[in-house]
Amino acid sequence: MKVAVEGCAHGELEKIYETIQCLENEEGYKVDLLLCCGDFQATRNLDDLQTMAVPPKYLDMCSFYKYYSGELVAPILTIFIGGNHEASNHLQELPYGGWVAPNIYYLGYAGVVKVNGIRIAGLSGIYKGHDYLRGRFEFAPYTDTTRTSVYHVRQLEVFRLKQLSGTIDIFMSHDWPRGIYNYGNKSQLARFKPHFRDEMDKGQLGSRPCEDLLKLLKPNYWFAAHLHCKFAAVVPHDEVEDSSGEADESSNENHSSKDKPVGEDKDERITKFLALDKCLPKRRFLQLLDIETPEFTEGEVRLEYDLEWLTILHLTNHLTNVKSSKYYLPGPQNAASTERYNFVPNRDEMENVRNKFAADLLIPKNFSRTVEPYNASEANREHVSQPKAQINPQSQNFCDALGIDDPVSLALIIGGHELSYSSAMNESTDTEFNDSTASMQTEQSSLNISSSTGDALSPRQISPFKRKSSLGLNLPKPIVEIDSAIGEICEEKNPDELQLGNSSADETDNEAKVAEDVNEEDSGAIALNAKPPIKKFKRRNQSVYMNEDKEDESG
User: Which of 135, 206, 331, 550 falls between 20 and 30 A from 7, CA-CA?
Assistant: First the structure.
């Protein structure tokens, strides 16, 4: 199967598809799948544009809205993850993934799917140590602080990805795994990006969670972006495992691929890493490769859920956290605890989840427009504000089928806000999506339905707290004793917290960094945009105190 890989899209979908079309015409082949490694910028209108954490000069609608409105249709199945330049309110509607336009699929905060048997996993966002241990508390409209924290990687997604077993063919991330530069041409990278040199020397360039996932999952391919340069590496994996069953981490992180020739041992597993640039003229932003799959029939592309991933989501739903405070996940470090910490599913658990989907894992083409797309007349609007958070019907259907909770719904309820349910604006222009869209329009007929009226709602509109299968309120108690690895992440002075702050590849990230550092310096002072009403109690002998207050003020 012919797969195209894109670095940072930055909203230039039309140019990316045109480039692929030129290559197809020149070489005489057909590209079957496009993978985008973040900064996708799925902005549907000017309201979405206001949720992006970028300098004003980069607030450009670009071309995604044309595919959302139906003016254009994606010619290739496109799968993408989120980065740090995103319409976060749009992507938050699909925490577990879904269609953002016909033939364009988002993997969610983290996700695993299969395309003609090829297993593709992904992790959205970038790593910042001070937000890593928090819950998913953000929702639109955002504050200056939450507009940046919303796209930071959280521990729960990484924890879930670590439960995967079997072969991962492709892994996608926006960040580079930390230390990946040691397995490629490090000196050439330093010449091309001189400001990376200091971070590489200190071992701080890249994401620590991605490094852990690379060592544990050992995917065949790993694609990334973010640093706006092309870089290739080959990572050999030591098959020796310790008594705990985890990969041997005794090797120094500065280990170089030169220490052991790759390919001498035929049984040795390797990961081919490739990072790509952003979509600009004369930049290396696109790569084509052939991936063998026994399930591929020319002209047919089948997108399916991964059963093991669905089961992991189901088993770990009770770990969902939507609070801004730090918390800790279960693990072997607390020997006295009987709480389960290994969620690698067994056969019975996976069969139970398969039955929830009636043994049909084909991802439904249920895209529907939920907001008005951009049009030229909007360009003259004097004031554009951030939209309110809303619940996407795709997420409702998925959560109800699997029996899990939508993080945005939980965050809104805990914050004392109404749940706003999206309604289909009109049918998709892609005929393959029409059937599911039409049925969804009848189900999602109300926009602003308060969670307090849940008893009168349809099953899809009932608050997640009122669902029988919901475990959203049964959050685990914090574990006091944690291992040194987690303790290092908790350290406020941990250099990992700033490891990507100075490694941005263009002027956009450099300008945004100053504002982000100021806004996020006090991580304990994060405030939501709106607070729940506070019940007031009348003080005993209130008239006496009121008289005293008046005297004090006059004095």
Answer: 135
CB 338 within 8 A of CB 185: no
pTM for the full predicted model: 0.76
pLDDT at 379: 66
DSSP string, 213-262: HHHHH--SEEEE-SS-S-EEEEEEE---B-TTSSBP--S-TT--GGGS-T
Residues in the chain: 555
- Rounded to 10°, the helix 347-356/393-402 angle is 130
Nearest alpha carbon to residue 422 among 456, 454, 397? 397
Which two tokens mark 426?
A: 């009109």
User: 118-123 and 110-115 as β-strands: parallel, antiparallel, unpaired?
Assistant: antiparallel
CA distance 137 to 142: 11
- Give Cα 343 distance to the centre of its chain: 21
Domain ranges across the chain: 2-241+255-395+431-436
Q: Closest Cα to residue 186, out of 278, 254, 239?
A: 254
Task: Give per-residue pLDDT as tens, 174-184.
Answer: 999 999 999 99
Determine the Cα–Cα distance for residues 201 and 435; give it in Å rounded to an integer: 56
Distances (CA, A) of 429 to 44, 90, 98, 527, 551: 16, 20, 17, 41, 70
| pLDDT tens-digit series, residues 306-347 | 999 999 999 999 999 999 999 999 998 876 678 999 999 999
Query: DSSP assignment, residue 391?
Result: B
Cα separation, 285 vs 274, in Å, equals 11
Distance CA 412, CA 530 (A): 10
- 541 neighbors 548 (Cβ within 8 angstroms): no
Q: Within a 13 Å sphere around the CA of 229, how many CA atoms are in the beta-carbon half?
A: 20
Structure tokens at 41: 């910028």
- For the chain, the average pLDDT equals 79
Cis geometry, peptide bond prior to residue 141 (ω within 30 degrees of 0):
yes
